[in-house]
Amino acid sequence: MRIHAAILWEQGQPLSVETVDLEGPGPGEVLVEMKAAGVCHSDLHPARGDWPMKTPVVLGHEGAGIVREVGAGVTSLACGDHAVLCWSPPCGVCPPCRAGHAVLCDRVEKVTYRNRLPSGAVRLHAGGQAIAPFLGTACFADWVVVPETGAVRVPPEVAFEALATVGCAVVTGVGAVTNAARVAPGSRVAVIGAGGVGLNVVQGAAISACEMIVAIDTRAAPLEIATRFGATHVLAAGRSAGEPVADAVRALTGGRGADVVFDTVGLPQTLADALACARKGGTVVLTGLARADTAASFPMFPFVMQEKRLIGSVYGSGRPADDIVNLVSLYQAGRLKLNELAARTYPLTGINDALAALASSEGARGIIQW
Q1: Domains contained in the chain, CATH given
Q2: How many CA atoms lie within 13 A of 324 on its CB side?
């Protein structure tokens, strides 16, 4: 079939919305008509060359739509089902999957992170050549083919705009709180970066009944939004912000520091700030990824002597398919904000404007809508 897709032909260059050929679903795959897709930093990084990647590729990895065709052997989905895309579909049989760590699935590492479908088939073509699907998802397109486990059925009454970011930003942010850190009620937490993931860390902390939630960012707009998501305090970071971030966090916490600090940015300075903000015996959870070659250093003596912990967290550190279902239920119960994450909407032809707005840190998420 002929569809429209936003192709990255060369890193550092604008995406090009073109007509491409999409093959139908094979065994164990489904065809999804896209209705809404979030625009994430994980799309921006490969677009501008922060992450080395073979091109051409169709970006986009968080979104929702309607299942229109199912391949042979598909049993969990039917035509007409509404679904949220899951870019980390686990195999279910490798050691990490059997141990309950679906996000560390061996197949995901070997296939998804190489922008391939689990079947090995190439479904997208343009200009006489194969087009890779970013994270096996490629949802900056009218239609996508994904594995059966890469589409999670959700209630049809939930608006697609609300569902657009559930499959990445929401799972990643809330899961960092509930699965990776397992934050206890009454905790005092700090969140560095109030973008799409950071806002969901904030509301994950609010859902977890944290006593203090300190949102930290370099810009005023994301901080203002963070208060609506449950931040009890906000701090402006940067050269012109006044006192160091760690001093400000300690002042808010009676001189002790935060129980848990979440770094959703992933730069050397933000990691250093996060470790300095954490109390003795505290935990730092790193979810942010900047450039692929980013490396950080920190003073080891206080890290050891104060028994701090540093944890990496990818895609919410849980079982994404189950987490997506649970998060939609929380939204339906009025306990999770989703509509408020869609700060700006664009047609597919506005994808480069959406990426530019994301790069300028305008706050919340841009949404592509069909």
Answers
A1: 2-165+338-369 (3.90.180.10), 173-314 (3.40.50.720)
A2: 30
